[in-house]
Q: What sequence folds into this?
């Protein structure tokens, strides 16, 4: 099943595709310029709000001012002379810049509705207070009633948590035996999982702001607490600092929200919401007020009692000292706008975050709490948490794939040992095309893996590439993983010799590869495996190994 | 002119006055409950917005959700069945709780207009970006063109800056000779002055958010720079830290704004706006989003590169480390809601801030950055910056007067030397009645002085009280200062042996007393002396001596 694509051919195809779409849009646009802005009934409005929130707000924002996607306020669309038909064409076909095509997901009616909705002023979204969060809070199994030691003999540090997105569930699999251990009902569209510092608990965050806590020591792992902290969220993490003065292991959790734009500190044992802090703020550069300055990613420090969050639209990275939550100390580091995702370097000193609409990675030193570099990597970097390895020529490097082009860019991330290479792109590895969401490797692995999940081409979006980290100069091997769905996200087992990959489809699959040979070892299927997306190994997630 | 009032008699008069007003309001209210909410023409709306902003927003908030005054949103007024006539009665007569009477300041037409305006939803106030601030910025005399040493032989550290509120001017007086040195055109309603660390510059802040910088070394002191940083402001201060690593003397300034709710860092030499940080945040207690969380007061640290600001409606005190303004470090200390004004203890370690709608002073340790006490002092404490002295029985104390009662309360503020008295009210000194805005003393002074500026009684609002700090158990001496206007604010000269007091009236006065004898030494008049309010001695302001 090993297939090699020529990247230049693919890029050419993509360009042709784009220019055809754009020409069509311009013709349609000229013909329909005069069309009026249509009214919606209350029922239509409610439906449109739901569709927009679920599928559009992530990239364009609840207030539509743009972030990973462009500004699509009614005012802006009008200025560009984008009417119903132009907007419909965009929604249906997507763009080469990373906008997915919704032509197969949405009905023609829905697309019409969304196009009309976008031409009206964005409705004011509601606030959400601590009292409302506490009302939603359910402590299902109190601490005292939880097991004192694991109730099973499984190697739970090698468990995998699999997000079953559209089912609103998380599956727990045994990474040693590949058995399904449990399917936990977490609710709407889980975005990610993070492990508590001890690894015992998985915290999940749904795109609707609901967080769930799963106890892996239970005979059949299940959720022990849940709490809704906002209407729209993407990030959650745990307190990972083991210090002299106090041990924060599993003591606290944090959720980063999109709407309302804030972060919430929760009790790490119960998910009880404790404290809310607004991230509505001024942009770092023009110092304009940004009512929708959202938290896109959180990185938990291991060496300090700190969470690192980004404030996406404002271009700030905040280091939040959680040692005293009644007196939070927040260092607000100016970086670059439209921050999205990122992770640690191998030593866990340097925070590396994508400002993807600026085609940059920004680097913040977690010790000095200052930005030390910005790296132009390519068209819309989307690293996930990135991948760290020891490059044979350049020493320790970190890499990111890109939404906008088929490129893994790696930069030196060891300013002490390899100062010449530090924060410079030293490797460029061509992949099959844009739409890459994740790159992954492991300290004990041989390969670096990359996906193409959002590529508009069916073959490419279902293909992976992998290259040897000891021979990164060699062309990567690329192959199609499945003939359906989209292939997304790679995760190693604890030992670092197997790679798990998801086939994101209504009837999904998990494909497990041998990292050394790139050979398929196992293919997991089952009626429970509905729309698998992210999947998280306990040990690698708790230790931030990537 | 020394007159003694009996406090109990005055309190009784006040009670009768209040109950008469309230009864009248209830009768009127019952009669007019059915009255409709009237519409305003655009011209009326514009006028009402101006009136409200200038005279009401300070206490009730631009969004009318309340702070020092109660919530007066249209929704809230309707719930209370307050219609046009009830509202008019409140505006005309004021209340005993600190609401001034506007019957003599506003025309009947204006009062009608305001009452109608308040029954409509508050208009959305505009934002204000750094670009707009920079547009307003005028560097009138660049640093290179300023004198290298004082161009006069006056003892400029004993200069007084006198706010001429309604004239939009600041007068500079020579504290040694009492001569008028200069009248500087600063613009609309200056609220306060603060000195730069060196004392050379006065920074003023207008209630319209315009800051002005006056160079006292010029032959005729004049403004050298100005910048508008918001639409509504109350506080400004300078960088006062002289550290090992860097000297911040006169390097930076900060303005705290009411609307938009933010603070702005400016260049201390030029007033160039550099950075804007939002204070819109969640309340410390219920963690509800507060869109109008305003900066009411700023205290500049001498021992650290820090400004201490309060976030009034949210109940937080923020310690802002300004050593690196690209990476501001802000410690957000939970205290109590509706913070207003305050100052240092004598050692400049403890921040003492009034939460006046909670009848409390809150105490924050600037070293540990934690709240260490809350003190119930009386009905709506309003300390200004407070007064520090060595009490003969209780050791170092700090005191506040009250808006809601005729009381100076003093608490122990030396937890190391006098731990038993620390943060407990140890002295209560009765004054003539409520409406007190300021209390003042000086390390070299004999007396502690207090005003009654907002008292509804004509005699009381024009009277001062003073008591001996070495004999605080003795009844204070109280006397009427003038037979017109309101008497407000006391300030010592540099030597600490004279007290300057303002008679706040269209044709105002400055009255200078001997601190030892309480005898009037001098009375300054002049057609330039229009509505004098706050007055600031350079040395005492630069050193935070109070």
A:
């Amino acid at each position: 099943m090993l297939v090699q694509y020529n990247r230049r051919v693919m890029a050419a195809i993509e360009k042709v595709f784009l220019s055809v779409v754009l020409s069509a849009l311009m013709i349609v646009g000229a013909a329909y310029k005069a069309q009026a802005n249509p009214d919606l009934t209350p029922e239509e409005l409610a439906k449109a709000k739901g569709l927009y929130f679920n599928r559009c707000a992530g990239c364009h924002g609840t207030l539509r001012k743009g972030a990973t996607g462009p500004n699509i306020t009614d005012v802006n669309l009008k200025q560009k002379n984008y009417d119903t038909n132009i907007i419909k064409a965009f929604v249906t076909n997507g763009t080469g810049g990373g906008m997915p095509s919704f032509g197969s997901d949405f009905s023609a009616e829905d697309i019409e509705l969304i196009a009309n909705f976008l031409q009206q002023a964005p409705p004011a979204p509601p606030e959400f207070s601590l009292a409302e969060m506490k009302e939603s809070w359910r402590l299902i199994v109190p601490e005292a009633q939880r097991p004192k030691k694991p109730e099973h003999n499984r190697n739970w540090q090698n468990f995998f948590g699999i997000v079953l997105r559209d089912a609103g569930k998380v599956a727990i699999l045994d990474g040693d035996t590949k058995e399904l251990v449990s399917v936990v009902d977490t609710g709407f569209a889980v975005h990610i999982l993070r492990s508590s510092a001890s690894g015992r608990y998985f915290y999940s965050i749904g795109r609707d702001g609901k967080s769930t806590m799963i106890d892996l020591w239970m005979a059949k792992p299940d959720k022990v607490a849940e709490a809704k902290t906002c209407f729209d969220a993407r990030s959650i993490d745990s307190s990972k600092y083991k210090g002299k003065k106090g041990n924060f292991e599993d003591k606290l959790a944090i959720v980063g929200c999109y709407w309302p734009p804030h972060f919430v500190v929760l009790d790490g044992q119960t998910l009880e919401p404790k404290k809310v802090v607004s991230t509505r703020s001024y942009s770092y550069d023009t110092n304009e007020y940004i009512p929708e300055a959202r938290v896109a990613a959180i990185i938990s420090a291991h060496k300090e009692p700190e969470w690192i969050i980004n404030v996406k639209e404002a271009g700030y990275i905040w280091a939040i000292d959680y040692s005293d939550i009644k007196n939070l100390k927040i260092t607000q580091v100016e970086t670059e706008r439209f921050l999205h995702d990122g992770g640690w370097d191998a030593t866990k000193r340097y925070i590396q975050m994508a400002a993807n609409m600026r085609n940059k990675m920004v680097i913040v030193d977690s010790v000095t709490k200052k930005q030390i570099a910005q790296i132009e990597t390519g068209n819309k970097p989307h690293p996930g948490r990135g991948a760290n390895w020891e490059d044979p020529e350049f020493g320790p490097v970190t890499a990111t794939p890109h939404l906008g082009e088929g490129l893994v860019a790696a930069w030196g991330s060891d300013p002490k040992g390899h100062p010449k290479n530090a924060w410079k792109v030293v490797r460029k590895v061509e992949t099959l095309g844009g739409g890459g969401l994740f790159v992954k490797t492991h300290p004990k692995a041989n390969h670096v893996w990359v996906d193409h999940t959002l590529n508009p081409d069916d073959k490419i979006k279902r293909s992976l590439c992998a290259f040897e980290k000891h021979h990164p100069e060699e062309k990567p091997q690329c192959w199609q993983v499945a003939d359906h769905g989209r292939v997304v996200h790679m995760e190693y087992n604890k030992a670092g010799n197997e790679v798990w990959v998801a086939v994101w489809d209504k009837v999904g699959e998990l494909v497990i590869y041998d990292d050394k040979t790139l050979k398929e070892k196992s293919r997991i299927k089952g009626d429970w495996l509905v729309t698998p997306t992210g999947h998280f190994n306990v040990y690698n997630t708790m230790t931030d190994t990537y």
Notes: The interface with chain A takes residues 127, 129-131, 260, 262, 273, 275-278, 280-282, 286-289, 324, 326-334, 369-371 of chain B (CB under 8 Å). Confidence is low (pLDDT under 50) at residues 1-14, 16-36 of chain B. DSSP finds nine helices and 35 strands in chain B.
